[in-house]
Protein backbone atom coordinates (compact mmCIF):
# COMPACT_ATOMS: atom_id res chain seq x y z
CA UNK A 1 0.00 0.00 0.00
CA UNK A 2 1.18 3.50 -0.67
CA UNK A 3 0.18 7.01 0.32
CA UNK A 4 -1.95 9.09 -2.02
CA UNK A 5 -1.63 12.79 -1.22
CA UNK A 6 -2.44 13.25 2.47
CA UNK A 7 -4.14 9.85 2.63
CA UNK A 8 -1.95 7.22 4.28
CA UNK A 9 -2.67 3.49 4.45
CA UNK A 10 -3.64 2.18 7.87
CA UNK A 11 -4.11 -1.44 8.85
CA UNK A 12 -7.15 -1.65 11.11
CA UNK A 13 -6.41 -4.19 13.85
CA UNK A 14 -8.70 -7.13 14.50
CA UNK A 15 -11.09 -6.47 17.38
CA UNK A 16 -14.24 -7.62 19.11
CA UNK A 17 -16.95 -5.19 18.02
CA UNK A 18 -20.29 -3.94 19.29
CA UNK A 19 -22.22 -3.56 16.03
CA UNK A 20 -25.40 -1.73 15.07
CA UNK A 21 -26.93 -1.16 11.64
CA UNK A 22 -28.16 2.29 10.64
CA UNK A 23 -30.96 2.42 8.07
CA UNK A 24 -31.54 5.61 6.11
CA UNK A 25 -29.68 8.84 5.38
CA UNK A 26 -26.42 9.62 7.15
CA UNK A 27 -27.85 12.97 8.30
CA UNK A 28 -29.26 11.19 11.36
CA UNK A 29 -26.56 8.55 11.89
CA UNK A 30 -25.74 10.28 15.19
CA UNK A 31 -28.96 8.82 16.63
CA UNK A 32 -27.73 5.31 15.84
CA UNK A 33 -24.35 6.09 17.40
CA UNK A 34 -26.28 7.22 20.48
CA UNK A 35 -28.12 3.88 20.64
CA UNK A 36 -24.83 2.00 20.40
CA UNK A 37 -23.30 4.19 23.09
CA UNK A 38 -26.28 3.56 25.39
CA UNK A 39 -25.94 -0.19 24.80
CA UNK A 40 -22.25 -0.21 25.71
CA UNK A 41 -22.96 1.78 28.89
CA UNK A 42 -25.84 -0.51 29.96
CA UNK A 43 -23.60 -3.54 29.53
CA UNK A 44 -20.53 -1.89 31.11
CA UNK A 45 -18.50 -2.26 27.95
CA UNK A 46 -15.64 0.13 27.20
CA UNK A 47 -14.73 1.33 23.73
CA UNK A 48 -11.15 1.34 22.45
CA UNK A 49 -9.50 1.75 19.06
CA UNK A 50 -10.74 3.09 15.74
CA UNK A 51 -14.44 2.92 14.95
CA UNK A 52 -15.61 1.21 11.79
CA UNK A 53 -18.32 2.27 9.35
CA UNK A 54 -19.22 -0.08 6.54
CA UNK A 55 -21.47 1.38 3.86
CA UNK A 56 -23.46 -1.68 2.82
CA UNK A 57 -25.87 0.25 0.58
CA UNK A 58 -25.20 3.88 -0.24
CA UNK A 59 -25.26 6.36 -3.13
CA UNK A 60 -23.26 3.86 -5.21
CA UNK A 61 -26.22 1.48 -5.02
CA UNK A 62 -29.25 3.77 -4.96
CA UNK A 63 -29.84 7.53 -5.08
CA UNK A 64 -32.58 7.17 -2.42
CA UNK A 65 -31.01 7.82 1.03
CA UNK A 66 -33.98 6.10 2.70
CA UNK A 67 -32.60 2.81 1.32
CA UNK A 68 -29.03 3.28 2.54
CA UNK A 69 -27.62 0.87 5.13
CA UNK A 70 -24.54 1.55 7.25
CA UNK A 71 -22.99 -0.91 9.70
CA UNK A 72 -21.25 0.75 12.64
CA UNK A 73 -18.73 -1.18 14.74
CA UNK A 74 -17.07 -0.08 17.97
CA UNK A 75 -14.07 -2.05 19.24
CA UNK A 76 -14.99 -3.04 22.80
CA UNK A 77 -13.69 -4.76 25.91
CA UNK A 78 -15.04 -5.44 29.37
CA UNK A 79 -13.41 -2.87 31.65
CA UNK A 80 -12.47 -5.39 34.34
CA UNK A 81 -10.55 -7.55 31.84
CA UNK A 82 -8.68 -4.88 29.88
CA UNK A 83 -5.00 -4.43 30.62
CA UNK A 84 -2.88 -1.50 29.51
CA UNK A 85 0.87 -1.31 29.17
CA UNK A 86 2.75 0.33 32.04
CA UNK A 87 4.42 3.63 31.29
TrEMBL record:
<protein>
    <submittedName>
        <fullName>GyrI-like domain-containing protein</fullName>
    </submittedName>
</protein>
<dbReference type="InterPro" id="IPR011256">
    <property type="entry name" value="Reg_factor_effector_dom_sf"/>
</dbReference>
<feature type="domain" description="GyrI-like small molecule binding">
    <location>
        <begin position="6"/>
        <end position="76"/>
    </location>
</feature>
<dbReference type="Pfam" id="PF06445">
    <property type="entry name" value="GyrI-like"/>
</dbReference>
<dbReference type="InterPro" id="IPR029442">
    <property type="entry name" value="GyrI-like"/>
</dbReference>
